[in-house]
């Protein structure tokens, strides 16, 4: 059974890629084309029924950017359920506030790199 990029999510993934948030667009400029320690990242990649903001298949690492919707009780609960599912298939999730991407992109990139396997 396929869990990556299920067909029924294809159009939704495409729509999200074509309408990145400003924070996603900023981080993508730093991750695309294997710029970060030659690791390949994908944007708006789906795993199971979830669409990840960014995913590095070589590291099994998901990067999620957090807007206001994540800081509600229901948003936090959805994030926890998603993270638990991803953990069961050995995908690690890193979460950053949108503000962090704008205020301290270098710190965000360092935190991502520190989670790469040596």
Q: Can you put this structure into words, describing what you see?
A:
The protein contains 5 helices and 4 strands. By secondary structure, the chain is an alpha+beta fold. The chain has one domain: 3-Layer(aba) Sandwich (Endonuclease, Chain A), CATH 3.40.960.10. Strands 1-2-3-4 form a 4-stranded mixed beta sheet, with helices on both faces. A hairpin with a 2-residue loop joins strand 1 and strand 2. The longest helix is centred in the last third of the chain and has 16 residues.
Spatial order of strands in the largest sheet? 1-2-3-4
Count of DSSP strands: 4
- Euclidean distance between termini CA atoms: 31 Å
Order of helices and strands: HHEEEHEHH
What is the CATH architecture descriptor?
3-Layer(aba) Sandwich
The CATH class is Alpha Beta
Overall pLDDT metric: 94
CATH superfamily: VSR Endonuclease
Q: Report the total helices.
A: 5
Taken from the alpha-carbon principal axes, the silhouette is: globular
């Amino acid at each position: 059974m396929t869990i990556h990029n299920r067909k029924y999510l294809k159009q939704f993934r495409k729509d999200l890629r074509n309408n990145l948030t400003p924070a996603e667009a900023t981080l993508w400029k730093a991750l695309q084309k294997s710029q970060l320690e030659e690791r390949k990242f994908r944007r708006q990649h789906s795993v199971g029924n979830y669409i990840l903001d960014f995913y590095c298949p070589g590291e099994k690492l998901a990067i999620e950017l957090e807007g206001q919707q994540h800081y509600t009780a229901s948003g936090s609960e959805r994030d926890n359920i998603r993270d638990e599912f991803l953990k069961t298939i050995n995908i690690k999730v890193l979460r950053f506030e949108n503000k962090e991407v704008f205020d301290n992109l270098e710190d965000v990139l360092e935190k991502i790199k520190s989670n790469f396997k040596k």
